[in-house]
């Protein structure tokens, strides 16, 4: 038997989540049976999409069950195995985060390479789902072309920071980002190589974007929705493309939020806007790993992480993520 701890969802939030929606619980797991593995988690991910899983509503990811452990990506080490494929000591990626240990079927884990130059947490960020989301969204969904002017919202986050750097490396003529503080704006320009950035608190998004991109934009990678989506539509050039990855400005809304009022621009400017999920683009996995892995190794891409220590602090880290308190990928070290 394995004595461990996990975080459970005990109530569903109205608006912004709070610590009272969760409980940290001691529990006991069985030893793995045939075809199963026990994993001690080294790091777990908290991501904006998880806010939707707290609601009991249909979505692309099933809702978390009340009084059950929350779910999400984690990287860990196999401590016991009933599988010939996954041995003890293997480094694995799996979907039973929000807990210190997990027992699951061996076919539900992904074997990861152990590399001295790659921290395990990278497989939750730049080399994991956020990085693949940025890659698929920019190059396939938004159909990026060298010379494009690219605008990305929430640009200091796990996905947005990758989008901007990928666009720069692929030959964008100008890369613009929005973020929520002066420190993040400085980070985008000085550390990540953005050409321009603005703090969305500093004024109307349309005015801030117009100053940063006076000639308009070809691509908008949307993580936010709201005023920034409307501003991006207004700045779109002919045949502009919008990849819709997230709408974090709406995740805690308790009533319907108004949509953009300038949708008529789609007609004359022949704008395309496409929502997407990274799971629809698994065929890009090898290409992504090769290119982005190389850029990380040679320092062409900076992968910032905000690391919070301990399962005890995971809930506050998740709430902080939704408030924009992270730079880069938010990671819980276990």
Number of strands: 16
Distance, first to last CA: 20 Å
In DSSP terms (H or I, runs of 4 or more residues), the helix count works out at 9
* Shape label: globular
**Count of discrete domains:** 2
Mean pLDDT, rounded to whole units? 97
CATH H-level superfamily title of the largest domain? Medium-chain alcohol dehydrogenases, catalytic domain
- Highest-level CATH class of the largest domain: Alpha Beta
Q: Please identify the oligomeric state.
A: single chain
Helix content: 10-25%
The Rg value, from CA coordinates, equals 20 Å
CATH architecture of the largest domain: Alpha-Beta Complex
- Beta-strand residue percentage: 25-35%
- Per the CATH scheme, the topology name of the largest domain is Quinone Oxidoreductase, Chain A, domain 1
- The assigned structural class equals alpha/beta
Sketch the major β-sheet. Answer: 7 strands, mixed
Unreliably modeled segments = none
Which H/E pattern describes the elements? EEEHEEEEEHEHEHEHEHEHEHEHE
Pfam family, one: ADH_N_2
Protein name: Enoyl reductase (ER) domain-containing protein
GO molecular function: oxidoreductase activity, acting on the CH-CH group of donors, NAD or NADP as acceptor
InterPro entries: ADH-like_C, ADH_N_2, ER, GroES-like_sf, MDR_fam, NAD(P)-bd_dom_sf
């Amino acid at each position: 038997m394995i004595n461990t701890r996990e975080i459970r969802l005990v109530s569903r939030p109205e608006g912004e989540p709070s610590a009272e929606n969760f409980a940290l619980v001691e529990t006991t797991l069985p030893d793995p049976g045939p075809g199963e593995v026990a994993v001690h988690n080294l790091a777990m991910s908290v991501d904006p999409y998880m806010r939707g899983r707290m609601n009991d509503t249909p979505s692309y990811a099933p809702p978390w069950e009340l009084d059950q452990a929350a779910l999400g990506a984690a990287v860990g080490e196999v401590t016991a195995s009933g599988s010939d494929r996954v041995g003890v000591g293997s480094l694995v990626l799996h979907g039973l985060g929000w807990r210190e240990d997990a027992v699951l079927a061996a076919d539900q884990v992904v074997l990861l390479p152990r590399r001295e130059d790659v921290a395990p947490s990278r497989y939750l960020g730049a080399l994991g789902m956020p990085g693949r989301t940025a890659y698929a969204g920019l190059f396939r969904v938004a159909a990026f072309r060298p010379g494009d002017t690219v605008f990305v919202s929430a640009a200091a986050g796990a996905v947005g920071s990758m989008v901007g750097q990928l666009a720069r490396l692929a030959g964008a003529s100008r890369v613009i980002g929005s973020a929520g503080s002066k420190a993040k704006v400085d980070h985008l320009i000085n550390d990540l190589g953005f050409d321009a950035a603005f703090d969305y608190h500093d004024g109307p998004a349309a005015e801030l974007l117009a100053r940063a991109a006076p000639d308009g934009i070809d691509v908008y990678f949307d993580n936010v929705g709201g005023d920034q989506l409307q501003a991006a539509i207004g700045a779109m050039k002919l045949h502009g493309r919008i990849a819709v990855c997230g709408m974090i400005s709406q995740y805690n809304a308790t009533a319907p939020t108004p949509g953009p009022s300038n949708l008529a621009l789609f007609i004359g400017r022949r704008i395309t806007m496409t929502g997407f999920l990274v799971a629809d683009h698994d065929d890009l996995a090898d290409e992504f790993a090769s290119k982005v892995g190389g850029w990380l190794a040679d320092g062409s891409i900076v992968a910032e992480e905000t690391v919070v220590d301990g399962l005890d602090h995971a809930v506050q880290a998740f709430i902080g993520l939704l408030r924009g308190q992270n730079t880069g990928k938010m990671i819980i070290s276990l």
